Amino acid sequence: MAGRAEPTDVQALVFDIFGTVVDWRSSLISDFTAWSAKRGVAGDWAGLVDAWRQAYVPSMDAVRKDPSRGFIILDDLHRRSLEKLVVEFGIAGLTDDDLHYMTTGWHRLQPWPDVVAGLTRLKTKYILSPLSNGNVGLLTRMAKTVGLPWDLILGGDLFEHYKPDPETYLGAARLLNLAPGQVMMVAAHNNDLDAAQKLGLKTAFVARPTEYGPLQKQDYEATGAWDIVAADFGGIADRLGC
Fold this sequence. Notes:
Elements: E1 12-15, H1 24-39, H2 45-54, H3 56-65, H4 74-88, H5 96-103, H6 115-122, E2 127-132, H7 136-146, E3 154-155, H8 156-159, H9 166-175, E4 183-187, H10 190-198, E5 202-206, E6 228-230, H11 233-239
Parallel strand pairs: 1-2, 1-4, 2-3, 4-5, 5-6
């Protein structure tokens, strides 16, 4: 474990959301299972959710590779991916309202058990915000639904870039009027922290070994020299004196 971070240097903590703060996989499977039973729709919801998440990075990469199309928010990328996947999975009879409900399932994701209490402790000393590829509307509705105590919302559409583009991490520091070294990136993904660290941000790792369910292949443990490695958000609060 890395040495104790200096709270006097860090003034703000920014958080990866999908997988770090919220359990997207279990949340979506549970949501769609309950909804489909009432709606009378049958589907392989675990399979669809896993495939949907696998489409996440390629959909953002397509935006990067064709900037002439302009920035496309994550809600819209999710909808486009979903429209293809319901056909592939043979889920028939869905209306536009059904597809909207499913797409906004990402707005209703539930936090991991340690999150709200840990954030509440950290908020006593630090500015807290998501730093997510999610758009501001998505992240705001998620926070409202499950009680995430952010001080502000930083989403990909503010920067018109997706992580790990430097514009996201440096943009967060700029909007907070802070030097990169005064901002700590919190994530369950080593690649996210690596990108942030290379730009001068402080880093904190929390493992979420069940994020991808049986498809989890990495991020079981810290693989970099991060400033903090903790078991949960409460552990980060302990290390930062909250």
